[in-house]
Amino acid sequence: MNNNKNILITGGNRGIGKGLVKRLCLSHNVIFSVRTEQLGQKTLDSLNDKNAKFIVMDVDHLESVKEAISSLKSLVDHIDILYNNAGILISGLDNNETALNTDEESIISTFNTNTLGVLRVTKFVEPLMKPGSRIINISSGMGQLEDMQDGHTAYRLSKTALNALTVILSKELAFKNISVNTICPGWVQTDMGGPSATLTVDESTREIVKFSLKDKFPTGKYLRHGEVIPW
Hints:
The chain has helices spanning about 15-25, 35-45, 60-70, 105-125, 155-170, 200-210; strands at about 5-10, 30-35, 50-55, 80-85, 135-140, 180-185, 220-225, 225-230. By secondary structure, it is an alpha/beta fold. It starts with 5 loop residues before the first strand and ends with a strand.
């Protein structure tokens, strides 16, 4: 893809999201979402880059998404790449709950953010996307059916559902030539992944961005480090 793209990244104030913002705003116009004005300004101050802007959006709530995308339209007239990155892992990796012990509220809350949140954002951003635009959903190997393990039930279910949503959207948006893929970023040293993770944020986002900007771009695929992996 050519330089100077308009890019929207959800959950851009920390972890992989912030890493993507830092890397991409060097050459592109980046808008990232945060839950509060204070978080947005704090993140913006740490970046010190004129190519980055933020919008306040809570992907858990439809009205918040609708209002945020309305404000987005005052910043740009189109979006070339959407990174659906915002996500939660309730209680973190240390709370390895089993399926039979998982409370329903945890599952519903996790689905609301990790799966429905992606659908909400995509629904309102899609009209701003031209043919050739790209949607990249940040998933996880914990949602991979071929290597499914026990524990972290709510998170695993939400990411498996996100992978399915990716395939559905790739088919529904094919008529408009909008590509939709899902990426496993690897085990990354973030608040969610913890300090023992095998990849730094910089290492993970380097691979994500490298894939995202490729001239030859697939759709409806599940990838890790630029390589297609089984669902």
